[in-house]
Amino acid sequence: MMRGSRNQQGEEDVQTPFLQTSGIQDPPPFSVQGLRFKWLVWGLVGVLELTFETGLAMRTTPLIASYKEHLCAKTSRGVDTPIINCQRDHSIASELALILGVFQLLECLPMLLLSGIYGNMADKYGRRPILFLSYLGLVLSSMWTTGVVWLVPRMPLKLVWIGPVFTLIGGGASVSLAILMTSAAAVAPSTQRVSVFSFIHGTALVAAILGFGLSSATMASLGNYAAQLVGLALMSLALCLSLLLPTGEAAHPLASDPELDSTSEYTNILVSNRHAVIRSYNDLLQIRNTIPLLIAGFFATLGQRVQILILLYMPEQFSISFSEANTFIILDHVSNLLVLFIGLPLANVLILRWWNFNSRRKDIALALISSALSLAGALLLSFAPNVTAAFFGIIVFGTGIGLSSLLQSIFVGLFPLERAAFATTLISTIKSVGGTFSGPVYSYVFALSLDLDRVLQGLPFIVSAACFVIVASVLITMAKTPRVRRDIM
């Protein structure tokens, strides 16, 4: 499935509930050596993100095109059906959507289940080995899918579903992204950390734009398989470069009284942590609007992930090639880049200056605007009569990119400061669940829309629009309710 969604993940939140803050402290006072080390780490993180994400983006479209070619060849084998007619066969598109939807589900499960475990391991054993493992699992998964494509028809195409099993090594894309963010933030003063995260996100978006653009050019000149190999080579290069990342400080146990029994201390820590978790969930039930916001986070992610269908929907709807459909992905990421680094900061300043909102009301206002833009974009895409209208729709849809991070900011702001980590973990997990289910949901809806034979061809985008209606309803309700106190006992 399209892993361009990783850009939206990284982008809006790191879906890893995890890397402890003990290793992220303000660096020592200024020194030339420290300054060089800081820029070395930032430069290496940028190179790793750019190289790996470019390779990942380069593989996406040619891989889907190869899947469809093999499905067409399988359907045409033994019957007198020209390949060009097969390309317009709705049954082929439905089967392709099923393969990609299940792949998306299987790909997200390791991230959802293992990200916390690998995050703790990174804190304990250092970031470099876990980053290497995460990249290794992703590279092995890509090698497997490339091998299956090479060996079809001698082996079933659905064997690509085994690929995500390799991401059990390292926990998947969210772990590597979180480690890069943690490594960059560890050498930055606290006042610069937001800029560091924005830099990494911007690098991921630039890599996606570059990767999809290169894949279009490579597919046209060298074919689908060569484009996949070039992308795999870039991912493998990032795997090797990850060994250059500074190890990072492993978590050290707190100093303790030598007379204290270690078993008793460990038991006390477990009891204390259990009580803290119970208190946090009690807060969740007591603080107004937390449950509706979690629901909104789920549907916001589900609505935004309709982008995974763009490379299937546009060729089917407008009879364009996969390389031409790449233009939609590029436009979407360009819109994301402009909004995140120009639109949202400017809107923040204008809202605070003109309407004198507090931080919470400002975030709610921006989230409402983002959800409205996403809703409008989804509706434009669902009813677009031609490619030009669809281009306009994807640009409008891309301007709603800030919705997820704004919802996270609102949600975390409802909790006491000492519960901020719990709140961040919770809403990130809920959004991960939304991303996990997006593949099966949209593959089923897409297949259903094909069965309706163009009566509701844009049904996936209508489902996406309905998700944003739910999000907007929650935000409007919140805007009408007074802010709750944060002094929960």
UniProtKB/TrEMBL annotation:
Q: Which InterPro entries match?
A: MFS, MFS_dom, MFS_trans_sf
**Location in the cell:** Membrane
Native species = Botryotinia fuckeliana (strain B05.10) (Noble rot fungus)
Look up keyword Membrane and say if it applies. yes
Q: Where are the annotated segments for Disordered?
A: 1-25
Q: Cite the Major facilitator superfamily (MFS) profile domain residue spans from the record.
A: 39-483
Which keywords does UniProt give here?
Answer: Membrane, Transmembrane, Transmembrane helix
Q: What is this protein called?
A: Major facilitator superfamily (MFS) profile domain-containing protein
Q: Which Pfam families match?
A: MFS_1
Q: Where are the transmembrane segments?
A: 39-58, 97-118, 130-153, 159-182, 194-213, 225-245, 293-314, 334-352, 364-384, 390-415, 422-447, 459-479
What GO annotations for molecular function exist for this entry?
Answer: transmembrane transporter activity
